[in-house]
Specification:
alpha+beta; four-stranded mixed β-sheet; three-stranded antiparallel β-sheet; 7 strands
């Protein structure tokens, strides 16, 4: 049995090997492949880093807040906006702006703003600007009246008194009493406060007229030489008076002489 199975088994193995070899030879040769490509997912671009932001623009601040169209117009026409923006770039003194809303201007007497001259409008705008940064807490200890851009050192015509009590701030000008409604913007150098009334002062309503220029004195006319000489009439009057007085002197002298002679004769 072992002799019969062994050749048969060997034949089967041989056939199996031949079939396998022929199958591999008939399959097309494939080109060698390189390393598999790795898919790389694109990353989102890094956000651009910007340098330090520059000083705020007063017009941009008010436009972003809204409801300050009239005040923006006054700032532009009086060029106070350029003054604020320029100073913010040049120095660190800062500015405090009390910005009346459009509703505040609508509350003025009809025709008030239109009746103002350009000088009055400029003074009105500057009266709402303080040339220093003042936080809410500083109004509790600040010295009043406060110097505004309109007043300078002349606070008599432009008195602005600001009194703080916690978060409540009261503003008085002698003609207007109002409060600060909210803080529109603050960055440590520029602060803008919303107010519900327009700040008016006597210096705005009755601007002082410029002092007239001194009038030069009129030159004196040269006196003619004839005017300095005594007139003939004056000379004549003096001569006539001397002549009229001469007889009186003569009579007096004669009288005195006769009295002396009489006295001498009696003594003899």
């Amino acid at each position: 049995m072992k002799q019969i199975l062994s050749p048969t088994l060997l034949l089967l193995i041989f056939l199996f090997l031949c079939t396998t070899a022929s199958g591999q030879s008939s399959a097309p040769a494939t080109a060698p492949t390189g390393p598999a490509a790795v898919s790389v997912q694109s990353l989102p671009p890094a956000p651009a880093t910007s340098g330090p932001s520059g000083p705020a623009d007063i017009i941009a601040v008010l436009q972003k807040a809204g409801d300050f169209t009239t005040f923006i117009g006054l700032l532009k026409s009086s060029q106070v906006d350029a003054l604020i923006n320029t100073q913010l770039k040049k120095s660190n003194q800062g500015f405090t702006v009390f910005a009346p809303t459009d509703t505040a201007f609508a509350g003025l007497k009809t025709g008030t703003l239109n009746s103002f001259s350009d000088e009055q409008k400029a003074a009105l705008t500057k009266f709402h600007v303080i040339p220093s940064f003042l936080a809410i807490s500083q109004f509790q200890t600040i010295s009043n009246p406060i110097h505004t851009q309109a007043a300078g050192e002349n606070t008599a015509e432009f008195p602005l008194n600001v009194i703080g009590n916690g978060t409540h701030v009261n503003i008085t000008t002698g003609l207007v009493n109002t409060t600060v409604d909210s803080t529109v913007y603050s960055d440590g150098q520029l602060v803008v406060y919303e107010i519900p009334q327009v700040l008016l002062s006597q210096g705005i309503l009755s601007p002082q007229a410029p002092a007239p220029a001194p009038v030069p004195p009129k030159p004196k006319k040269a006196s003619p030489l004839n005017a300095l000489a005594p007139s003939s009439s004056t000379t004549a009057s003096v001569d006539s008076s001397d002549v009229s007085c001469l007889p009186h002197y003569v009579l007096t002298v004669v009288s005195v002489g006769l009295a002396v002679l009489a006295a001498m004769s009696l003594s003899l």
